Amino acid sequence: MYRAYGLLTPASSFTVDEARTRLAARFPDAAVTLAGGQVTVARGDWEMELLVNDAPAVLDESVGMAEKIAGLGDGRDIESCARRVEVWSETPDPMLEHFADYQAVVEVLQTFPGLIAVDPKEPALL
Q1: CA nearest 76: which of 5, 1, 11?
Q2: Which segments of 1-126 are extended strands (E)?
Q3: In this prediction, what percent of the chain has a pLDDT beyond 90?
Q4: Is 37 exposed, middle or buried (0-12, 13-18, 19+ CB in 10 A)?
Q5: How confident is the model at residue 16 (pLDDT cuts 50, 70, 90)?
Q6: Which of 13, 49, 44, 46 is nearest to 33 (CA)?
Q7: Strands 31-35, 46-53: pairing kind
Q8: How many CB atoms within 10 Å of residue 16?
């Protein structure tokens, strides 16, 4: 239902361990776990997942996003991203009860210098 990318510039300070720590502080009433490099935020019937993707295709996809979001002249930070944090939730949310939770996860990611939050569907900056 929800999806976002946190594009990681070469200078990014992002780590999954620190992401888990920050998310646990933001969601004190949720279970925030780290297993196999994947962070899960779970509360009741809702959960959100985070995983770093550093596959070779990420850099090519970042260049494509830079062209669509900012144009190559303005998208140098975006086009340099060979890694990204992928955020998703497959939990159905027809009444948007967890939209604020999704936004809060993205806000936590945006606290990391060198992370550019984007909506991969549009693509557009978040």
Answers
A1: 11
A2: 2-8, 31-35, 38-43, 46-53, 83-89, 115-119, 124-125
A3: 81
A4: exposed
A5: very high
A6: 49
A7: unpaired
A8: 15
Question: d(Cα 52, Cα 8) in Å, to the nearest integer?
Answer: 9
**Cα 29 to Cα 7, 18, 54, 63, 93, distances in angstroms:** 28, 18, 31, 38, 19
How many angstroms separate the CA atoms of 89 and 120, rounded?
A: 14
- Average pLDDT of the residues of the chain: 93
Axis crossing angle, helix 99-109 with helix 16-26, rounded to the nearest 10: 140
Strand 83-89 and strand 124-125: pairing? unpaired
Identity of residue 68:
K
Cis peptide upstream of residue 28 (ω within 30 degrees of 0): no
Q: Are 124 and 118 in contact (CB under 8 A)?
A: yes
| Burial bucket for residue 17 (CB in 10 Å: 0-12, 13-18, 19+) | exposed
Coil, strand or helix: which one is 40? strand
Confidence (pTM): 0.91
